[in-house]
Amino acid sequence: MKHPPSRPRRLLVAAGAIGALTLGTLASLPAPNAMAATGCSVSYTTNSWSGGFTASVTITNLGDAVNDWTLGFTFPNSGQRVTQGWSATWSQSGSAVTARSVSWNGALATGASTNIGFNGSFTGSNPSPTSFTLNGTVCTGSVTPPTTPPTTPPTTPPTTPPSPGGQTPVGINGQLRVCGVNLCNQYGRPIQLRGMSTHGIQWFGNCYNPASLDALAIDWRADLFRIAMYVQEQGYETDPAGFTNRVNNLVEEATRRGMYAMIDFHLLTPGDPMFNLERAKTFFAAVSARHAAKNNVIYEIANEPNGVSWSTIKNYAEQVIPVIRANDPDAVVIVGTRAWSSLGVSEGSNHTEIANNPVNASNIMYAFHFYAASHRDNYRAEVERAAARLPLFVTEFGTVDYTGDGAADLTSSTQWLDLLDRLKIGYANWTFSDKAEGSAALRPGTCNGTSYTGNSVLTTSGVFMRERIRTPDNFPTS
Ligand code: IDC
């Protein structure tokens, strides 16, 4: 573990709305000089550990559109420093900090937001700045009208932030739902989501920061971010409120970037999901309430049941799914399958036990997991048979063997992904992390730095996965 975890702190500075502004009031103002309406709000969030912190800063332009911007703020304590920033050109003089926009995020329409961030150091305490300026205007959360009427009325803030490459996966596909054996987008057309899974967030939380998530969304063009929240192994059971909070924050980060967020209740050892039934109900009640209004959250209720019958898993699912549905009726839910989500194959069974006795719920899919160096033709044949009868999602797979380590088997991995592409089965690769093991996409040490783009930070598995994931999605839009 790199940094001892600490609770994220959120400070919302003057996050006001512009509702009071009307064209009528603007038009009645006398105005000799053409000037722009100005206004902004800033939210500043930190995660700190002893002596260091990561800050995430979201700037919202409430005034007229700008083509570039400069953010200013002052650290309350003299010992606070920006050590490395991203998504802006950062400078510091004394306690005064300046962040200038870069080419791809300078243009901010009315109501548009952008997220920037930095790693910092501090001595003593690490209080958040209390005041921010954008292009010299203090961000109060309200708007100073121009002295002449604007030529165009203020536009409504967009529901998804603009992305440099155009529309985001969530922007295009919207709310998903299961249609037959497929996953369909808002136009009722089958789609395949391709993305990455975190490693255990209790160990690799430092790998999920604004720069790495920007890389996933923009450089990898990922559609999906799976958040693996282990229940045991120093996970959820040790701090339910803290882990719920961390998962919620990561969902917000995925949402901000237009990616689907898959919440993985990562039960593994013990393999009986009933052992964690009450925890699952508590956890899913909380996260589904929090994200009910979003259209990009997918719930994975049981990572890998093992050593238990299908009927036990079905019983668990039929108790947890209603908890989610009570808050978020239209979200897709994914149910793990017998024998480490192998559709039963790894314990001598097969998909027919599910097809003959499906979970009594609608809008659900079944999980299938594989590790390409361990699981080959007989598993692929079973997936092909199962996919004709059951909606499947590969919520986790590795290019390596089932231990998560060893060499990437790119031949078997290619056969697997070609099959999933053909069947339009979505997938998340294990893992977007820098653990020193073959399945990790990032080279060891990457998460101590601030650079996550391109191939130079990637392992063999990472280079392969990035190439597969970043090809165009061609999502149908009608
Ligand atoms: C592995 C990790 C490894 C960790 C181990 C125990 O790669 O670093 O020490 O878990 O927590 C799964 C599981 C997933 C495993 C992965 C590889 O869902 O948690 O991760 N795997 O063994 N099922 C099959 C393989």
UniProtKB/TrEMBL annotation:
Keyword DNA damage assigned: no
A Pfam short name: Cellulase
UniProt keyword annotation of Hydrolase present: yes
GO biological process, one term: cellulose catabolic process
Key words of the record: Carbohydrate metabolism, Cellulose degradation, Glycosidase, Hydrolase, Polysaccharide degradation, Signal
Enzyme class, spelled out: hydrolase
Biased composition (Pro residues): 146-164
Region (Disordered): 140-172
SMART domains noted in UniProt: CBD_II
Signal peptide location: 1-36
Catalysed conversion reaction: Endohydrolysis of (1->4)-beta-D-glucosidic linkages in cellulose, lichenin and cereal beta-D-glucans
Family under the similarity heading: Belongs to the glycosyl hydrolase 5 (cellulase A) family.
Protein name per Swiss-Prot or TrEMBL: Endoglucanase
Naturally occurring in which organism (per UniProt): Micromonospora zingiberis
Species lineage: Bacteria, Bacillati, Actinomycetota, Actinomycetes, Micromonosporales
